[in-house]
Design goal:
disordered C terminus, disordered N terminus, mainly alpha, Glycosyltransferase
Amino acid sequence: MPGRPSGRTLAILGAGASVLVAAAVAMSPSALADTAAARDAATWQAGEITAEGHIPTGWGTTDWGLTIDTLIALKATGVEKATADKITAALEERAWEYFSLDLWDTKGQRIAGAAAKVLYAATISDADPEAFGDYDMRQEVLDLVAGADKGPEEGRVKNKVTDGSDSSNTFDQSLAILGLAGSGDVPQSAVDFLIDQQCSEGGFRLYPYAFGGTTVNGDCDAQENPVLDPDSTGMAVQALLAAAGDGAEGAAAAAKKGGDWLKEIQRADGEFGGSGPTEASNANSTGLAGQALAATGHQAEADRAAAWVAARQITAADAGAASEDVGTIAYNDELLADAKANGLDPLQRDTWRRATPQALLVLAQVPLGEIGKTDPNPGGSDSPSPTDPTSSSPTATATPTPTDPASSAPVTTPATTTTVGVPPGPGGNGKLPLTGSSLLMFGGAALILLAGGAVLFLAARKRKGAQTS
């Protein structure tokens, strides 16, 4: 397409860029990375895991996406190793509930983003991705990579569902590449499709088509006025670094270009916002974009992002009324001030659970492709978390649910995603990103909307003027 070389053309630049990117990765994590703060955040997050090894939703089901986000946080920091093992064991037994529809629909269907996320979880754990419970997760994901007969969709990691629906996005593609790179070779076609989501400016779009569309018909530059997304760019950059390490053509050059774009758009105080309705500065976007900056050698900018996130963390020295929740990280300034004044609102606890594991990534500064390869906390304490995992607070969500950390940009009101839905934003079919569709989308959407509306009404009465974005 005019204005931007294809993924295969970028391969010409790959060798030289590989040297630069490899040097950048060697410099991470920074001597300035706040590992103590990252470990405090991960320890708080571990306390949200139940005795069964997962995080529940407010409707009595399991939030496997957020559970995997927690596993990523624990492996990135090396704390609560027993809790990480408990999560892995639970995933091996029950992850099929997340990536398939076998629980209540035609068997054999697969959700691309969820399968990719489970594969990545398996690769960062002491588990065999090819024998993860009863499943070969590597083959499961490979089976979802579109072939040459799919035209411009070649290489896309796609849903396999009977109704033909597919909202897989750049997060899903990035997770698939991270998982495949961590378990063997990565198909070049999958890397090329991810590179096609990068516009000439360097940022990546969230969906492979314009808002309201469903059909892939070209790369990012072929789309009129594409919305470039910092969260998607942070994910894609790190996936491409992993692919470059696997020898994929064009990956290193595209990763470097994405890191340069993140440097250019970083805000004055070091923070980032998402795209569309989540463009306000927030800890989720800053954590993921900052992690990518560190991975591509933009260390000063990564440390500025880390400082911004650290300033939104509940600490023992400045907890106020939130003294029982030291370590957790606020999604934004409004929630931080409210928590210090009043403690964590039980109706908003799910927001903190989603902000913390992604925000801490910039504090730990371990690239997603490197998590699980070495222990970042050898000899570290594995004592029980301060929070009793069998007595976690309710998770009913009355506030915006920030990113599913390795899922996408935060959201704002109940409607369509695996956590809480959003008004129409820069995604296909009016949906913001998700790492695999929750089964709730297929079997209980109406019930969730009713419950979400009731929770919002009660929360509004309980706390006038509470922030929701």
